[in-house]
Every structure is written in structure tokens, then in C-alpha cells.
Amino acid sequence: MEIEKKYLVNRIPEDLEQYEKRELEQCYLCERPALRIRRMDDEYILTYKNRPEESGRGDHPLCVAEELEASLTREAYEHLRKKADGICIRKTRYRIPYKEYLIELDLFHGRYDGFCLAEVEFASVEEGRCFQPPEWFGRDVSGDYRYSNSYMALNNC
Question: For residue range 24-42, what is the model confidence (pLDDT) as tens digits?
């Protein structure tokens, strides 16, 4: 189970080069449930992600999803990439430690160049509800499906 919150970013932290980063490309074969292929540097992954209808609703929205992953070969990834719907999302992901959490800061490229989102994963729904973000985070968009990568890829906003 994946439990996360997603935020717009008011200010990108300085000295990003000090943090681990990965180059990602992800493409979608289906939106609901999400069937995604992802290239992370030289790693290839197939992901099935199913969000319950009530995910993201309430006073403290959270993104909650059943998530299953499997490794792909590069050849399988390239084959499936040709079958993807919409656009492939490209982004650089920085992994930034914050208290006991890990912030994944995504800086988008291509169609969404200049756009950025921050995500934080939690061990429980309660932990996510109690999370206090750093001051450089902007608005919490966890409950807004328009900020899901699948929506962005398939609706080409």
C-alpha cells in the first residue's frame, strides 16, 4: 500500500546537486487502474496502481493506493512504450531527507518544463495526516487528481 501526500512547491531548495537524483520517464497504458511503465536511469519497471474512490477526500487528503511493481527488460519497456497513451512524462527526481521522511522533488521536463511537485510517503494514514511540511512547500494537492502523473500524461494539460 502506498500512502503519500503531494505538494506544489513555492521555492526550490538551494544546492540541489548535494542530493541524490534520478532521471525518470514514465508512460501510461491505462489510467484507472493506472498501468505505468517507468525508466529510472537504467532500471525499467512496470507498475499497477489502483486508488480507492475515497482516496484524497476528507479534511486531510492523502493519496492512498494499492501498488504492485515488477521489473522489465529494456526491450520490454521499449515495446510497451510504443503502446502508451498520451505523452510520456519526463522528470528529474531529487531525494531530499527531511526529519524522518524522504521528500521526492520532481522537476518536470518536456511538455511540463518548469513545473515541480514534492511527494512524501508515510507508513500510515495517521502519520500522513499529522505531517508538517517544510516551509518551501506550497499548496497540498494530494486530493486533486489533476496533479497525478497519469492525468497529466493522458490529458496533456
Answer: 999 999 888 889 999 999 9
Contact 76, 82 (CB under 8 A): no
Rounded Cα gap, residues 113 and 115, in angstroms = 6
Sign for the pseudo-dihedral over CA of 132, 138, 141, 147: negative
Sign of CA dihedral 152, 57, 48, 120: positive
Q: In this predicted model, what pLDDT tens digit does every residue of 44-92 receive, in sequence order? A: 999 998 876 544 444 446 777 788 999 999 999 999 999 999 999 999 9
Confirm if 36 and 26 have CB atoms less than 8 A apart. yes
CB-CB contact of 86 with 155 (8 Å): yes
The three cell numbers locating residue 60 = 486531510
